[in-house]
Amino acid sequence: MTGAARFVESFGFALSGCGIGLVLAGLAHGLNGLSAAAAVCCLVIGIGGIWSGRRRAMMRAGKAEQALRIIESMPALAWSTDASGKFLYMSRRIRTLTGLSKTDLSPLGRDMFGVRNVVHPDDYDRLVAAWQHSLATGDHYVLEHRIPMADGAYRWFRNFASAERDQDGRIAAWYGTTIDVDDEKTAEAALLEREQQLSRLVDSVPGLIWSLAPDGEPTYFNKRMVQFTGLSIDQLSHLDAGRLAATIKIIVHPHDAVVVTDAVRSAIATGEPFSLKHRLRRSDGVHRWVEARAAPMRNAEGIVVQWYGICLDIEDQVQAQDELRRTRDTLGRASQAASLAELSASIAHEVNQPLAAIVANSHACQRWLTADAPNVERAQMIVTRIIRDANAAADVVSRIRALFKQSTQEKRRTTLGEIIAEARDLMIDAATQSRVSFTMQIEADLPAVACDRIQIQQVFINLMRNAIEAMEGVEAAKSLTIRARRSGGSVRIEISDRGPGVESPERVFEPFVTTKTDGMGMGLAICRSIVETHGGRLWAETSPSGETTFTFTLPVAADEAAVAV
To answer: How far apart are CA 309 and CA 184, in angstroms?
Structure first.
């Protein structure tokens, strides 16, 4: 009951007593009308005061009971202490959850929370220090700690407490609320674990990852980015603006800075992803090529809220491309040198035969002139042959030059039978010395072909000489067969021998590949080049019987417009 209610009730008793006293006095001495009226008024007012005081007290008690029921029904834990921290009240939920009674929690003792089983052991010192600080200063008290439940498990709670002061400003009591935040803490721990896992994942990616604000200012560098460049976001924290320009100036090669700046600014203005290659400064000062790519992240309204990018180190790739480019250049120069060497070898190879003929004829001429009876007529015939061979050598050089220039100006309509006969006459001496017999199978009325007579003659001579030399170690009869016939729109020529055969029919046409101990390996390569220049094909085959055949084709009047009449 409050002081006002007690005063009204006491005053009512006093008035009632006065009214009863007046009645008794009137009965003893006689009441006049005024005294009777006064007695009745005092009695009525007194009874009314008593009833009013009792009613107010009952109303106050009802409100207090209602407030208590509200507090007990709250999901939070409510409690109060006196000024020294000793518990005055705790809601029923506290005792239900913890299994502790008010007696278990009080008295708290001089060091507060003397009963250590109120909180988790790891939180005890922190809780006592914070509570003692609030008791000493009167500041609001807020702290998270773990409380043991009735089943022995601990749950996280958050305590809020504030002081109630009297009229003099002194702390009269403390009122607090404790809220269960265990689910919140569990969710925070799970979120933190996911963030840490994501951070570890981002740091383990073999790339330099970064992010920009919508206006282009850097907001994040992953661990690899920081380690590579030696620059962290914290080092840019003193800059309110211009972080992008500062970052580009520090870590981008000066020659690429403008290109990078323009690309980023253009992407920010358009909202489109960008990709470019530039040089990035490493922490040791070395610049390495990277490929930078970035794309925007948008919210539900399509507004860019962040830019995410990655830089991939492509220095090794760029170096490999440069090395490949240098290798191609080197190979190009080597190819030119090889072409020159091939031309030189070709000239030496082809000129060797007419020069050898010149030397042989010169010796013969000398013998006819130095005889006891000089045979001038025979000597003149030999001199004619020398002139012919010298002109042939000159023609060989010019034709080989024309071959490597892919010239077609010297092609004329020619009958192959005549060329075959000339080549046989030139090789007859060598064949006779090696005891090789010639067999000619030339189809009658062979069509003319457009060709360079000297070059095709060199093909015949090379193939005949190779056939003769291939049969040097053969003891059986040696025979060289030449066949020529029409095959569709071409003339097909076959030169066969009975030598040991060819192991690699295709490889023998490669330059500098030879089976001879003193050969240069250029003859067949030159022959194929000549035939292909004339629009034909040249290949080799070895039959099961051991006969080797070199076959080539020449088109019949392949290009009438190019034939000089």
So the answer is: 33
